[in-house]
Amino acid sequence: MKPFGYVRAGSLREATGAYAAHPDPRYLGGGTNLVDLMKLGVETPATLIDISRLPLDAVEERSGGGLRLGATARNSDVAAHPLVRTRYPLVARALLAGASGQLRNIATTGGNLLQRTRCPYFQDVSKACNKRRPGTGCAARDGVHREHAVLGHSAHCIATHPSDLAVALAALDADIELYGGGDGDAGDGTGATGGIRTVAAQSFHRLPGDHPEQDTVIRPGEILTAVLLPAPVPGAVSLYRKARDRASYAFALASVAAVLDLDPATGRVRHVALAFGGLAHRPWRATTAEQELTGAVLDTGTVRRAVDAELDRARPLRDNAHKVVLARNLARDALATLAELAATSRRAP
Ligand SMILES: Cc1cc2nc3c(=O)[nH]c(=O)nc-3n(C[C@H](O)[C@H](O)[C@H](O)COP(=O)(O)OP(=O)(O)OC[C@H]3O[C@@H](n4cnc5c(N)ncnc54)[C@H](O)[C@@H]3O)c2cc1C
Ligand code: SF4
Questions:
Q1: Is ligand 2 within 6 A of the CB of residue 215?
Q2: Where would I find the FAD-binding PCMH-type domain in this sequence (predicted)?
Q3: Does the pLDDT of residue 119 top 80, yes or no?
């Protein structure tokens, strides 16, 4: 590991100021991804700006029934929070499906969404990788790519995004709050510029295109300050399912986050949201399937056709066609389970 400087920020303004003042800086959340990458020589920052102790660790009610998850809230604390568990069970399930208890105790909300890909060639500095060093090539394309993308990949990169939380957020139409990259007032009463902006969670992560080195739309120096969850759809049921090589401590081969609301009078779909993880460079919101399902009665044939319409767009590579099969089965099963749950909750006194 190369020597590096360390600054502990006491406020958002101090953090963005330190970022601007130091060469080659990185923000430090829990460090469970960044420090690992520094040990491997993939990340070589000159200065770490520790933002983990900023007072951004609360889970708070928003007006209108939503929740605000602070960026430095630990994954374990968010997953265990009573309001998260009761109103957004798929967020709690997604977090608990990730990493291990020890990692979740230190990993933060912001860091989880900004963690880098687990592509082994990205993590090996002796291998060509356009994400790590733009223009050098992609060793995974002709290498071992059993765990790589089947949707939305480009000639330049076939990596997947690893966060489970991000998939749940995409299905919930959450927003991401960012500080420090805009031109307006910083909003901290100091008159400093910096600005706060929000970005829809489903547009926060990028497809690789020609620039796989840019994982998200975050601007240099911006801090992710919170996740904003909208009020849950009344009466809707939801779940998160993940297929992986081991029962725990493994990234998704494919995962699905689903939300469903059925009209109690007709049994038809009033609202459905479906997002896949492990298939692409970002959570994959299944808008084609959602369109097919909205207004329909959820029988086996309708579900099959809708899921197929979405996943027929997949472009699997030599070694990863199994991911399409996994995703199809996960989505069909998730929708069937939710339809049953919705019917049961309608019958309940
Ligand atoms: C063995 C192992 C298994 C894992 N399995 C899973 C899994 O199955 N599913 C899953 O979702 N995750 C998994 N993880 C990933 C783990 O959840 C992440 O390492 C963790 O969430 C990163 O959070 P952190 O706070 O430690 O981030 P850090 O390592 O501190 O930061 C990660 C990146 O985000 C930046 N950053 C951090 N916070 C902010 C912020 N607020 N604003 C701007 N930039 C910021 C940092 O500069 C860095 O680039 C696994 C990790 C390991 C080591
Ligand atoms: S898939 Fe992406 S991250 Fe992996 S080696 Fe290729 S360019 Fe790098």
A1: no
A2: 1-234
A3: yes
